[in-house]
């Protein structure tokens, strides 16, 4: 049987936010790695307001995980890249609404993502015990 | 027997480029993680033109994987960092010539890499069923 | 029995610094992933001088690993993000004092981290054969 994923705090997360400083991914688990996921709508358009872009990106993460047989609660690590430091507070607020457990986190502001105009990409790793393909067998 | 790696599309990659939105790495696989790999020539010099730097970086990725018992087609995730947004199109073109399957991708523009002058670093993760050491046993 | 982690050089690391171009993580190992770890002191204050901030961040990495049942020598990959290119040399010097083996490395300069004022975050992945929970059983 695969051991459970462990979410671990140490000494600095209490001063920063809601996340785990370390996550132990047990041997024998399937890992699902996501690309940097932007907040494009399914029709390819980009929301005008950042809050909606952050919500759409989170929904796209959820959908990509679902297609891989995983869900938001399986996430063990998130790396978020934003292009505007003034959007950090809004992003953190949306993130808390979407992800209620405590994965490991990285956030960085970068000058540009893969396409001009994108203000956010969310990269995530999830751990699951069965993939979609296995579940369909 | 180790299950196959799954490359999964969801809803946004069709609007962005040639990559997988999620990749499921099966339990029981060896992972090869690469450092950020620059486009230095084997003699340590840096190509003058970005296209050549991108080709050299890709070749260096290939060589590092080979030394670890892996190959380009084993790559499941690529993170590319460029210092100039105007080089993105050239990089994407080189990337398509080098990697013909669809790993997960992240691309970000950053102000500087480990050394001034480097315009690109490619970080990659590959999944293999046998490492070089095991193959030599 | 879990195979040993392999640290592999290819052709470019000799021109850049002390790290491995590839690391092969054996199947059957527990992976510990860390959040981006800043150089905050346990009381939440930030050192005035960057060298102390880098030392504190390294100590925080060590403590987070310890809480997860791992140690510095278990690190297989480090991603460092700094906000000021002029701090790179100091960071590399501190890093060499703290980590004496050769994990895979990525370093990027970014305009801002999760909170204004932070000049460094260290993200690391470690590989262990037993987690803290298992050791306490």
What's this, in brief?
The structure is a homotrimer of 137-residue chains. With 137 residues, chain A is an alpha+beta fold.
| Helix-strand topology string of chain A | EEEEHEHEEEH
Quickly count the helices of chain A: 3
Oligomerization status of the protein chains: homotrimer
Please give the radius of gyration of chain A in angstroms.
15 Å
Low-confidence stretches of chain A: none
Give the strand content of chain A. 25-35%
Whole-number mean pLDDT of chain A: 93
What is the number of independent domains of chain A?
A: 1
Biggest sheet layout of chain A: 5 strands, mixed
What is this structure's SSE topology?
The structure is a homotrimer of 137-residue chains.
Chain A (H helix, E strand, L loop, with lengths): L5 E3 L13 E4 L4 E5 L2 E2 L11 H18 L7 E8 L5 H11 L5 E6 L2 E2 L6 E9 L3 H5 L1
